[in-house]
Amino acid sequence: MDNEIQLISDGDGLAVIGNAPDVERFLVSEGLSSKDLGLQRLKSVAGTGAAVVQAGSEFAADSGRWVKLTQESAQLVKKYGLRESSKTGLSTGVVRGHKGQIRGFVAFTKGPRSLLTSPAILAGAGKIMAQVAMQQTMDEITDYLATIDEKVDDVLRAQKDAVLARMIGVGFVIEEAMTIRETRGRVDEVTWSKVQAAPATIADTQAYVLCQLDALAEKMERKTKIGDLATTAQEAESIVREWLAVLARCFQLQDAIAVLELDRVLDASPEELNGHRLGLKTARQSRLEHISRSTERLVARMNEAAGRANSKVLLHPTKSPAVVQSSNHVATGVHDFHGRLGIESGRQSSEARRWVDAAAEARDKALETGAKGVDAARSLGNETLDRASSVKGRLSSEIAERARRRRRGEDERDDEG
User: Fold this and answer.
1) pTM recorded for the entire structure
2) Distance of alpha carbon 160 from alpha carbon 291, whole angstroms
3) 14 φ, ψ (degrees, to nearest 5)
4) Percent of the chain beyond pLDDT 90?
């Protein structure tokens, strides 16, 4: 594999595998940031058979880096002509570089490669990539919770619902299992038995939170008076912030369970590893879509409320801008939440950005319209006063003229008499 690197993509990330210098040159030439793939975990798949053992030993001697697929890095899949396998769902290919050069890598497709043609090794590589991607999301959620300064356990403790209260205990158990996994390098039956009931509790909590967000969206839709709308919108700021924090924690724990589950399947039924990985990926995407729909619906209702408030800013110069501002805060929070969970490509991300822009524009327009309204009212008042003064002047003149005519008539009658 001298001067050659192997590329594997699962749609979420790109594995760059080869000798360390070659991998480093390739990443630098493409301007990519990466993290360690943890190839040492593939030793566990080299169980039986001389070919598999040989592939595993070769693999262990190589370097592996993981690149998160973005719009930019995803172009490498097309650039190097990676081919997708219908069986594994992975796209693979080999790239050859010129020795000692940082640039100048070219696509190389001649001859089979031991790594890419070994089903066991390839399935193991797919497992590791999925785990690294989920660990990345878990870390980003941890950063997200720290950024918004939300202590999820405090939020959960404040709830009277028993389903939410159980989430605290489930989190402790999962974290313990993850620690054992890191220490032992595998998930045995005993470790798995501690967490196998956890998904039900997490799912119940997630469903509860999504119902709360849906109820809030409906509440916003029902409010017609600007005063009530302002009160509900301001309450929604803190409420949504808390529910998003709990929802993020749910997703974090679900990813942790999936990481443990993949190791457990590898330990118990390695032949089912690839199929199980694909099933987990589908289920994870389904959760993301469900979460996205609920949060999209909420932001849409907040945006509509901002529109209604903006249209009545002259009648409610204080409360209308408050509705727009609250809508903007909620939209921004949801957009940040989406990004941390990986809902950052395609329609979801562009919609979230448009919501933020629309809310900001509505807020600015409300303030601008309000200022113009005040000026207009002031101008209208001045014009009214001017007209009143003018009318008053005309009336005074007419009255005076009539009085003069009356006096003139009386004088003429006196002279005739």
Assistant:
1) 0.74
2) 23
3) -125, 125
4) 28
